[in-house]
Design brief:
two-stranded parallel ribbon; about 160 residues; mainly alpha; two-stranded antiparallel ribbon; 7 helices; 4 strands; elongated; about 65% helix
């Protein structure tokens, strides 16, 4: 081979690479944000961007006004956000509260019953429109307080599925 082929080989290689990239976009589409990035915003049907601490503070504010339904919903979301922030649980978009509770129970097996009970309370108030009470709020707050200090027993991230 003579030295005249060098530039042509580079041009052909660049064109082949460009064609492969364009074909990949046509087949698979434009890359999206990771599932984890979407999941950390969406919590049980709501686009929720507050941190666990902010959700807890807002829930306490509502509880002080005896707005139990809203306080219960926010406190459970705080519980979930706290576990997500700690990396103990990963919730995909559309995960139900019960799927979250099961995933959290894998990370915190000692709290499995309390997590499922809290998920049931959230469901009752949020979706079944049963009235929230101070006692129900305090039970969810207690579960949140317990799991926020519990050490997850994980070998890998617990995933939630609906």
């Amino acid at each position: 081979l003579s030295g005249d082929w060098g530039p042509w080989v580079s041009i052909v290689a660049a064109v082949v690479i460009a064609v492969v990239i364009v074909a990949a976009f046509l087949v698979w589409g434009v890359p999206r944000a990771s599932g984890r990035a979407r999941a950390t915003r969406e919590l049980f049907g709501a686009d929720e961007q507050r941190s666990a601490a902010e959700l807890r503070r807002d829930a306490e504010t509502l509880a002080a006004k005896s707005e139990w339904d809203a306080a219960i919903v926010l406190r459970f979301r705080a519980l979930a956000r706290g576990l997500i922030e700690r990396g103990a649980v990963d919730t995909p978009p559309g995960a139900t509260v019960h799927a979250f509770a099961r995933a959290a129970a894998r990370a915190l097996p000692a709290h499995a019953g309390a997590l499922e009970s809290a998920a049931g309370a959230f469901d009752d108030v949020r979706y079944l429109r049963r009235p929230g009470t101070e006692e129900l709020y305090r039970r969810i707050a207690a579960v949140d307080d317990q799991v926020s200090t519990a050490r997850p027993v994980l070998t890998e991230l617990a995933g939630a599925t609906s």
